[in-house]
Description:
- About 60% of the residues lie in helices and about 0% in strands.
- By secondary structure, the chain is mainly α.
- The chain has one domain (about 25-135).
- The chain is globular and about 40 Å long.
- The termini are far apart.
Amino acid sequence: xxxxxxxxxxxxxxxxxxxxxxxxxxxxxxxxxxxxxxxxxxxxxxxxxxxxxxxxxxxxxxxxxxxxxxxxxxxxxxxxxxxxxxxxxxxxxxxxxxxxxxxxxxxxxxxxxxxxxxxxxxxxxxxxxxxxxxxxxxxxxx
Length: 142
């Protein structure tokens, strides 16, 4: 009988859903004032933002049902150019990322499922951080 209870308890634990380390609400607000006060940390965060968007676009591209010719990701065209044209991070930016933590996963969690690329430009987090990162990374406006 004890063995049966252990098996049932073990099955219950094995079927418990996984949790993530960083919840979306843990992503701190990002303002232009914060970027001006600590430019290295701001650049590290903006690089995480661009990298998260790049990974999201790659996820869309891997979906056989997603057709980029339908204009679903036109608002995110800038991401591919930005991702591949950014110069390598300086030692100061790498140190800032190590100190503050890489935020790629937090961004991906905050943006939610990658079901629709066209919905992302309406996300308040995307709008805010895109505006701040345009200035920090010297990206052109859309």
